[in-house]
Amino acid sequence: MSVFSEYKDCIAEGDLVLVWISRDNIKPIKVDSNEVFNTRYGSFPHEMMIGKPYGSQIAIRTKGTNKFAFIHVLQPTPELWTLSLPHRTQIVYTPDSSYIMERLNCSPRTRAVEAGTGSGSFSHAFARTVGHLYSYEFHQPRYEEALREFKEHGLVDIDKNVTITHRDVCRDGFRIRNGDVTSHLFGENETEVAVGADVVFLDLPAPWDAIPHLEDVISKDEKVGLCCFSPCIEQVDKTIEVLNRYGWSDLQMVEIQGKQFESRRQMVRTLDDAIERLRDVKRRKNEGLERRKRMCDSLLNDQPEADETVEKRPITEKTKFNPFGKGARVKEGDANYKWKQVTKVEPEIKSHTSYLTFAFKVANQIRNEEAIQRILESSESK
Amino acid sequence: MDPLKQLAFDQHVILRLPSGNRKIVQLKPNSSISLGKFGAFHVNDIVGYPLGTTFEIYYDGTHEPDLKNQNRIPVGKIRLLSRTENETGEREQSPLPAELANVLSSANNQKLVNLGNDVQGLSMAQIEDLKNQTASGEEIIAKMIENHGSFDKKTVYSQEKYLKRKKQKFSKFFTAEYLSSSAMLQFLLEKGDVQRVMDMSQESLGMLLNLANIRSNGTYLCVDETGGLLVYFLLERMFGGASEAGATAIGGGTIVVVHENEHPNLDLLKFSNYPESFLKDHIKTVSLLDFFEPPSSQQVEAAFTPLPKDQVRSLKAGKKNAYYRRLKWYNNQRQIITLANETEYDALVIASTLHLPQLVQRLSTRVHGSRPVVCYSQYKETLLELAHALYDDLRFLAPTILETRCRPYQTVRGKLHPLMTMHGGGGYLLWAHRVIPAAEPAI
């Protein structure tokens, strides 16, 4: 089983692991005992990871500054891979891909078609869940890159549930025949792959050119679900036209909006404390005023006997009433203050990824009358 | 016949009606199913067709009236709704629906005056009569348009809306769909069980399954307060149904359900089409008390010792029963010990209203490193509290609160726009990874 399909216990030489440095810095590495993983916080010899359980924190003290630095070593999952992967194209993010998979009811029984492969983000999520994925990519360098990556991740040779084919599906359709540029290894008498897809995902600029070709590869005796992923509403309009023409029904277009929240704290600052603080300021101000008045008065009256009673400059108490830590640097969550837990939406949200147009089709709406009769008769005889 | 592809006898399916409502039914052989004003049909007439097929109920006047019960809906005949007719008005409308091809329309509604019911020439009684003659939906609608006083004053858009409304009321077709986890959720939401399903949405649950990396070969620890809906989502994602009784699961994974009452509540699984034995093999249940305070091996072994097989065979009938009862208890106790002390889980998945920081932190001790912890809640605030607690706990990496919302559109060419209203709920998710903190390295 591959690193993506097996639940591994401990990190071993040669494993593909994801090094979590921070939320937006996750790096895939291949564990090699002779290698060192360098970050700007310090260097981590791979040797330190080998034999440790997945999820382990690896901690070092940096040589120069003698600071504590650490990373976490994780086993890849499609969702973590999506966060770390090298972008070859715009990718399909988890809020969209997870919705599509649920809406099309993906499971190990699913046979899925995906075009194009792109950066392979969605391919990994599909491969984790479905029985078989047929992925198509028309751009030659991207095809080769994705093929290399899928092989490295064990999806093609080990799990054997991903087939990737170099193809412009809009022009040449989806059939995979012996002699085509594909990862499929043909058997001796095999001339064409029996795709029989019940789930189709089209992430193409012109899905309407590909839709007519789907007839060749979709399953005929069951309901087939389709999703087109298009950023522009004009594409959706054209897609609907073609879907209607080719007998797809139950059309619905939706948009998915995903958001992340930061968990933060806001200081609880009560009105009473604010008033009390002002009162305190006022009291001190008055004290000062009165003192000045008395000093003034004694000067004006020129009363020498006052010498003994002349007020010494009072020592101003350093910390007066300061409930909110004004002037000091207060860390969020400082235990000396009261805090309210709050959420803050991430500073930049993906306000539009693409429109998802869903459609469904049952090609052969027929039944085997004899089989039904047989079942009924056998149940009667019981 | 494959019950995952075709309508099969004894299967639970979900029917979509012209009104947009759904109904869960079991396809018992030789029985009939009534859909109220949308008619009734014989189960035998639809079994064998692919799941997702749309049928029309029609009456050709040959049905026998039920003399005992006049109100009973007569059972009609079934035919496939041909594809050109398979348009509910929500779909393609250019060119115009056939019903509107020969009627006049207005460029605007300037001359349209609201007369209420009087504008319809047919009286309520006349329409009822038509229905009793079991005229087809199309015939009734055609008659109503014919007798409508100001139909020609409506714009074509308004006519289409009228047609759609009347079709929802008078058409007699239905679609028999596979009862997926999402379909069950949809059904419960529409039925008004929003509180029971904790206001979940398809998009939130889909995201939960992906973030928790649910696969067919994992062992998952789960708390499900929805009566089995969350467990059904996991099951469907892991196995995608069981095609026949005694079928073995792909991957062989297990869901361990920890429950707060003495007995687990997974009632909704009775609608699922998994055989009893399959559910028993892949779902284990443990109460919170047993999970956190499992019996000791010594206690269990001291209380009972299984006998060799030949010795069991020689037991008398009464004694044998007692023996098997004890054996069942014994095996159950041993299972509890394994699940509570030994199993390292591949994900923790929670939908519960228990105080989350304590629940998640305590259950997570049994979760393997690098595995996801995903918690669903109807409220962001409870997850916020959890997120802060997990931030301070070095066993959790990057707790994140997420929201996902689906915005559906009216999907008609030239008239694409978001629907005017939609379901407002959907809840929130917290996603973190279980990690193993390292001791601070010595200098």
SSE order of chain A = EEEEEEHHEHEHEHEHEHEHEEH
Record field, number of beta strands of chain B:
15
| Nearest-integer average pLDDT of chain A | 92
The general outline of chain A is: elongated
Distance between the termini of chain A: 46 Å
- Gyration radius over CA of chain B: 28 Å
List the secondary-structure elements of chain B in sequence, H or E.
EEEEEEHHHEHHEHEHEHHHHEHEHEEE
Total count of domains of chain A: 3
At the first level of CATH, what is the class of the largest domain in chain A? Alpha Beta
Percent of sequence in beta strands of chain B? 15-25%
CATH second-level architecture of the largest domain in chain B: 3-Layer(aba) Sandwich
Question: Under the CATH scheme, which class of the largest domain in chain B?
Answer: Alpha Beta
User: How helical, in percent, are the residues of chain B?
Assistant: 25-40%
Work out the oligomeric state of the chains in this entry: heterodimer
Unreliable residue stretches of chain A: none
Provide a short characterization of the protein structure.
Chain A is α/β, with parallel strands linked by helices and 382 residues long. Chain A has helices at 78-84, 94-103, 121-129, 140-152, 169-172, 207-210, 233-245, 271-301, 369-381, and strands at residues 16-22, 25-30, 36-39, 42-45, 57-61, 68-74, 111-115, 132-137, 162-166, 199-202, 223-230, 249-267, 339-345, 355-362. Chain A has three domains: 16-76, Roll (Vcp-like ATPase, Chain A, domain 2), CATH 3.10.330.20; 80-258 and 353-374, Vaccinia Virus protein VP39 (Rossmann fold); 262-280 and 331-347, no CATH class.
